[in-house]
Amino acid sequence: MLKDDRMQNLAEKRKKIEQFRQNSSLSPVHAELLGQSILSSWQRSNVAKIPKDRSAAPLRPAAQQTPNALQYALTRCADDLKHIAQQSSMVVAVGDIGSTIIWSASSRQMQSAAESVHFMQGGQWKEELVGTNALALSLKTQQSSCVFSNEHYMASIHDWVCYAAPIIDPHSKQIVGVIDLSTTWKNHNSLGLLAAERCASIVQAALLEQHQQQLYIRAFSASQVLFNGKVLVMTPRQIEILIILALCPQGMTLDTLHQALYGERKVSVGTLKAEMSQLRDVLGGMLGSRPYRILANVEADFLQIEQALDAGYIESALKLCSGIFLSKTESPFLCAWRDCLESRLSDAIFKANDADVLLRHVAHFPEAIDAVERLIELMPQEHPTYQILLKQKKYGS
C-alpha cells in the first residue's frame, strides 16, 4: 500500500510539472513549487535555440589530452563507483568543468537507456546544448542538484531522475568536475542527493591521495605553491622558475631557462645555478637536471585555464582568472605567455553568448573592455544595464 501511495505521489508530481511546462507565465507560487534553479534553467534552455528534435547529447570526438588530476583520481576509485552503479540500478557519470562526461559506469538496467542518449564518456551535457539536466545544473549553481522526470528539457530523458554533486579539489577548493547518479523516475528516492554527495566525497578522497608528490601552483592574484597540500615558502624568482618549467614539461637546459627567465638582463648563469640548488632543497629532490624539469605531478590554475580554453569552456576559464597572471614578472617568456593567454581569452569573450558569465567577469574586472563591448552587443538597448555598460566603455577606452 505504501508503495502504491509513493507511485501515485510521483505520478502526480510529473503531472504538475507538465502543467508548469505548458504555462508560459509561472506565478511566484508555481516557481516556488518548481524550484528557482529549475525555473531559471528552463528559461535559459528556452533561449538557447536547442534543436527541437534533439534526443541525445552531442558526442565530443575522442582526442589525445594530457590526463589531469581528476582523471588520475578516477582510476583510483573507479571500482567503488562501478559497484555503486551496479548495486543501485543506476548509471554513474563524472563530468568535467564543461559538463562533458569523462567517465561513466552503468548498471545492466540503465545501460541501454544511457547509451541511447549519450549519457556516457564523450557526451556533452552543457545546458545550452541539451537544456535542463542535473549534471550541468550542479556546475552552474555550484551545489547539489536533483532534476526529476519532465523537469528535464529533452523529452528523451523524461523517464529519468538525476542527482548530481560538484567535485571539489581538497587543496585548491576549486570545483574540478561533477558526479551524477541517474535512474528511472519510478525509483526516485529522497536520499538520492546524499548518495551523489557521498560519491563526490569518494572522488575527493582519491584526489587527496593523488596529491601525494604533487605541486599545485597559483599564479593569478597572489602567487602560491603547494607541495603535498602544504604551502611552500618561496621567493618570487623561484615561483617564476617553477611556472616556466610547468609550462615546459619536456624540460629546459640551463641556457634556455636563463634566457626565458632573464632575457637580456645582465644576470650570471651562476646566479641561476644557485637558484636551482635552493629550489631543489625546497622541493625535496623533486627537481630534475639535464634537462631541468619538475619530477612531481603538476597542477596549476594557469594550466587549467589553458585546458578550459582548449575545450571551449569560456565560463570555466573566466572563473579561474582571479587576477592578472604574474603582474610583476619581468621574465620575457612569462610576459609573452601572459600576452598570448590574454589574447585567447579576449577572442573567447567576443565569441561568448552567455551574458550572465560576462556580467560576472565585468563585476570582478570593470576594466575588461572586451567583455563590456561583447555585452553591449548581446544586450537589448532597453535593458537597464545597457546604459551603464556604454558609460563604462566610454570611460574605459
Output the CATH class name of the largest domain: Alpha Beta
Supply the number of structural domains.
3
What would CATH call the homologous superfamily of the largest domain? GAF domain
Low-pLDDT sequence parts: none
Distance between the termini: 70 Å
Strand content: 5-15%
Q: What spatial form do the alpha-carbon principal axes imply?
A: globular
CATH topology of the largest domain: Beta-Lactamase
Which CATH architecture of the largest domain?
2-Layer Sandwich
Number of helices: 17
How many DSSP E strands? 11
User: What summary fits the major beta sheet?
Assistant: 5 strands, antiparallel
Give the strand line-up of the largest sheet.
2-1-5-4-3
Helix content: 40-55%
Name the structural class: alpha+beta
Radius of gyration: 24 Å
* Average pLDDT, all residues: 89
Structural description of this entry:
This protein is of the alpha+beta class. The chain has three domains: 2-210, Beta-Lactamase; 214-300, Arc Repressor Mutant, subunit A (Orthogonal Bundle), CATH 1.10.10; 352-397, no CATH class. The chain has 17 helices and eleven strands. A hairpin with a 6-residue loop joins strand 4 (160-168) and strand 5. One of its GO terms (biological process) is regulation of DNA-templated transcription. One of its GO terms (molecular function) is DNA binding.
Supply database-style keywords.
3 domains, Beta-Lactamase, 397 residues, alpha+beta, Transcriptional regulator, 5-stranded antiparallel β-sheet, Arc Repressor Mutant, subunit A
Task: Give the topology.
Elements: H1 2-22, H2 28-34, H3 36-46, H4 69-87, E1 91-95, E2 101-106, H5 111-116, H6 127-130, H7 134-141, E3 145-148, E4 160-168, E5 175-184, H8 192-210, E6 214-218, E7 224-227, E8 230-231, H9 236-247, H10 254-262, H11 269-282, E9 287-288, E10 293-294, E11 297-300, H12 301-310, H13 314-320, H14 332-351, H15 355-364, H16 369-378, H17 384-396
Parallel strand pairs: 6-11
Antiparallel strand pairs: 1-2, 1-5, 3-4, 4-5, 6-7, 7-8, 9-10
Helix pairs in contact: 4-8, 12-13, 14-16, 15-16, 16-17
